[in-house]
Write a structure and sequence with these properties.
- The complex is a heterodimer of chains A (about 300) and B (about 300).
- In chain A, about 75% of the residues lie in helices and about 0% in strands.
- Chain A contains 14 helices and no strands.
- Chain B folds into two domains: about 45 residues, no CATH class; about 230 residues, MetI-like fold (Orthogonal Bundle).
- In chain B, helix 4 runs parallel beside helix 8, helix 10 runs antiparallel to helix 13 and helix 12 runs antiparallel to helix 13.
- Chain B is an all-alpha fold.
- Chain B has a two-stranded antiparallel ribbon.
- The chains are: A mainly alpha (about 300), B mainly alpha (about 300).
- At the A-B interface, helix 1, helix 2, helix 4, helix 5 and helix 6 of A face helix 2, helix 4, helix 5, helix 6 and helix 8 of B.
Chain lengths: ~300, ~300
C-alpha cells in the first residue's frame, strides 16, 4: 500500500512542475470527497451499536424516546445490574455456560487441529490425501444435512439437554485442520531436515519446533472457534431444553419474548453483555483474525 | 513440501506419528461429519419420528419434495435472499475495500476497518434483536426517520413484501465487512507496478479501477461469490429472530423449513430429503459458478 503511493508520487515528479502541483491538489480534493461515502457507511454500521450502548445506559422509561439519541445521555449501570442480578432469570449462569462450552471447544480444537494440521501438512502416511480430500469436500456440506443425524446420535448417546451435545461435535473441525495446515506448510522444510539430522523425532518437531512458529494461526483459530461457539444459535436451540443449561444468546432471544418490549433497556444491556467477548477479542486479536480470513477466505 | 523432504525415505516413525497426531481429529470428523452425511442419505429413504423405529419409505420423501408448495415458497425466499445479499454484500464489500485501501492516515484506516468489521464477529441473533427494534413499525427509529422526511411508515417486519428485504438489509449490514476483508486481501495482492505504469500513461482513477483493479480482483470475487452464496442460502438466525419466517411463510428460509420439519414435527426422513435437495442445489450452484468463471475470471 505505502510502496504503491510512494512510487506513484516519484513518478509524478518526472512530470513538469506546474502541472504537478495542480494535479496534487486535484487529487487531494478527490481523495477527501471519496471519504464521504466511507464515512456514511461507517455511520450506518456504527449507529445501531451506538444506539444500543447509549439506550442500555438510560432509564428504561426513556428507551422508546424519539428522536433517538445515539450518544449516551446518562450512565445508569442499573440496567446491567438488574440483568445480572435478576432473581427470575440467572444471566450469570448463562454467561458461565457459554464461556465454559466455548473454552472447552477452543482448547480442544487448538490441540486436535494443530496436531492434525501438522500430520496432514508435514508428514507422509498412507491414506493422508484420501482423508484430506474427504474432509475438504465435507466442509462444503451445509450444516442442515448433518444436524438431523447428529440429533439422533445425541439422543442415543443420552446427550440431549447436556452441554456434551454442543461440545462433542466441536472437538475438532475440518476448517481448523485446513487453516493450520496452511500455516504449517509455509514453514521452511529445512527446519524438519535440520531437526532430523539432530536426531529429533517427528513428535518433537511438531511440538517443540513447529508449533511455536504457527502462533498467528493458532490465535486466528482460537478467536474463530471461541466466537463461533459463543455465537452459536442453532446448536443450543436444538439440543438444550432446561433453563439452567441455556447459553447466553439463546437465553436472550427466548427472554425477549418473555419480557416483551417493555423492558427494552434491560434487553439491550443483555445484548451488550453478549457481544462483550467479541469486543475483547476485537481489541486484542483483530490482526490475527483478518490474517486468518485472508489466508483461507473463511471465518470458521 | 520441498524436494529434500520428498526424498527423505518414509520411515515407520513418520507413518506412526502421522497416524497418532491425526487420529483424534480423524475419528471425531468421521463420527460427527462423514457418518452423519451418509446417515442423512439413508434417512431419505425412511420414515422416522424418533419414537417408533424407522420404516422403509422408498421414494416417498423424494416425490413429496416435488409436490410440496411450502417448500417451493421457502426455496423462492432463500433464492431471493441469496440474490439480494450476495449482490449487495459483494458490491459493497468491494467498494469499501477499494475505499479503505486508499492512502489515508493510519488512525482513519483503523477506524474504518473496525467500523465495518466489528458487526461481522458479533452474535448474529443478538444484533438481529437490535434491528428488530430499529425496524419496528411502532416507535421504530427507521420509521421515525422516514416520517421526518414525510414518508408513510413501512411495515418492515410484518408485511409480505418487506420481510425478506429486511432480512437482506440486516445481512448486508452485518456481513459486508467480511466481504471487505476478503477483497482487501485481494487488492493487496495486485502489484503496485501496474498502477505506476498506468500513471505514466496518464490513466485516471476510474480507468485504473476498470482496467487494472477489476480484472485482477476477479479470482477473489469468484471465491467470495461462492462462499457468500453458500452462506446466504443457509441463513437461519437472521430470519428466525427478525421475522420468525413470517408473515405466514413470506420470509421462511429453507434452513428454517428443515428445522421445522425435523425438530418441530419430527419428520426426520422428509427433513433429510429436503436437506439433501439443498446440498444438491448448492453443488449445482457452485458447479455453475465454476463453469461460468471461465468467462470472466482472470487467472494470469
Amino acid at each position: 500500500m505505502t510502496e504503491q503511493t510512494v512510487s506513484r508520487e516519484s513518478v509524478v515528479h518526472l512530470a513538469p512542475r506546474r502541472r504537478n502541483t495542480g494535479r496534487i491538489w486535484k487529487r487531494r480534493v478527490i481523495g477527501l470527497l471519496l471519504l464521504i461515502p466511507l464515512l456514511i457507511m461507517a455511520f450506518i454500521e456504527i449507529m445501531p451499536i451506538m444506539w444500543m450502548i447509549s439506550t442500555s445506559l438510560r432509564d428504561p422509561s426513556q428507551s422508546f424516546e424519539l428522536p433517538p439519541d445515539f450518544f449516551p445521555t446518562s450512565f445508569k449501570w442499573q440496567n446491567y445490574y438488574a440483568v445480572l442480578t435478576s432473581e427470575k432469570i440467572d444471566f450469570p449462569l448463562f454467561f458461565f455456560n457459554s464461556v465454559k462450552i466455548a473454552l472447552i471447544v477452543t482448547g480442544s480444537q487448538l490441540i486436535t487441529c494443530s496436531a492434525a494440521g501438522f500430520a496432514f501438512g508435514r508428514l507422509r502416511w498412507p491414506g493422508r490425501d484420501v482423508l484430506f480430500t474427504i474432509f475438504l469436500a465435507s466442509m462444503m456440506v451445509p450444516g442442515q444435512v448433518t444436524t438431523v443425524p447428529i440429533f439422533i446420535i445425541m439422543r442415543n448417546l443420552g446427550a440431549m439437554d447436556t452441554h456434551w451435545a454442543l461440545i462433542l461435535p466441536g472437538l475438532t473441525s475440518a476448517f481448523g485442520i485446513f487453516l493450520l495446515r496452511q500455516y504449517f506448510m509455509t514453514l521452511p522444510a529445512e527446519l524438519v531436515d535440520a531437526a532430523r539430522i539432530d536426531g529429533a523425532g517427528f513428535f518433537e518437531i511438531y511440538w517443540r519446533i513447529m508449533l511455536p512458529l504457527v502462533g498467528p494461526g493458532l490465535s486466528a483459530l482460537g478467536v474463530f472457534t471461541f466466537l463461533g461457539s459463543w455465537n452459536n444459535f442453532y446448536g443450543p436451540l436444538l439440543f438444550l431444553k432446561s433453563w439452567d443449561k441455556m447459553t447466553f444468546p439463546i437465553a436472550l432471544v427466548t427472554l425477549t419474548g418473555y419480557m416483551g418490549m417493555g423492558n427494552r433497556a434491560h434487553v439491550l444491556a443483555g445484548v451488550m453483555l453478549s457481544i462483550f467477548p467479541v469486543l475483547l477479542f476485537f481489541l486484542f486479536a483483530q490482526k490475527f483474525v483478518i490474517q486468518g480470513i485472508a489466508l483461507t477466505g473463511i471465518k470458521g | 513440501m520441498s524436494i529434500k523432504e520428498r526424498e527423505r525415505s518414509l520411515t515407520r516413525d513418520e507413518i506412526l506419528t502421522g497416524y497418532l497426531l491425526s487420529a483424534p481429529s480423524v475419528l471425531a470428523l468421521l463420527l460427527f461429519m462423514v457418518l452423519p452425511i451418509l446417515a442423512s442419505i439413508a434417512l431419505v429413504f425412511t420414515n422416522y419420528d424418533l419414537l417408533t423405529p424407522p420404516t422403509f419409505a422408498g421414494w416417498d420423501n423424494i416425490t413429496r419434495i416435488f409436490g410440496d408448495k411450502r417448500l417451493g415458497i421457502c426455496y423462492r425466499n432463500s433464492l431471493l435472499i441469496t440474490i439480494g445479499a450476495v449482490s449487495l454484500n459483494n458490491t459493497l464489500g468491494l467498494l469499501l475495500a477499494v475505499g479503505v485501501n486508499r492512502k489515508m492516515p493510519a488512525f482513519l484506516k483503523y477506524f474504518f476497518r473496525t467500523a465495518f468489521f466489528f458487526p461481522v464477529l458479533c452474535t448474529t441473533s443478538s444484533l438481529a434483536m437490535i434491528w428488530g427494534y430499529l425496524l419496528a413499525q411502532d416507535r421504530g427509529i427507521i420509521n421515525w426517520m422516514l416520517g421526518q422526511i414525510g414518508m408513510e411508515p413501512v411495515r418492515f417486519l410484518t408485511s409480505t413484501q418487506w420481510a425478506i428485504r429486511s432480512v437482506v438489509m440486516y445481512d448486508v449490514w452485518k456481513s459486508c465487512g467480511y466481504l471487505m476483508v476478503l477483497y482487501l486481501a485481494g487488492l493487496q495482492g495486485i502489484p503496485p507496478s501496474l498502477y505506476e505504469a498506468a500513471d505514466i500513461d496518464g490513466a485516471n482513477a476510474f480507468q485504473k479501477f476498470r482496467h487494472i483493479t477489476l480484472p485482477l480482483i476477479t479470482p477473489t470475487a469468484f471465491f467470495a461469490l461462492i462462499i457468500s452464496s453458500i452462506g446466504a442460502f443457509q441463513i437461519f438466525d437472521n430470519a428466525y429472530v427478525l421475522t420468525d419466517g413470517g408473515p405466514g411463510d413470506a420470509s421462511r428460509t429453507i434452513a428454517m423449513y428443515i428445522y421445522e420439519m425435523a425438530f418441530k414435527r419430527y419428520e426426520m426422513g422428509y427433513a433429510s430429503a429436503v436437506s439433501m435437495s439443498l446440498l444438491i442445489i448448492l453443488l449445482v450452484l457452485t458447479l455453475l459458478q465454476f463453469l461460468g468463471s471461465r468467462k470472466w475470471v482472470n487467472y494470469d
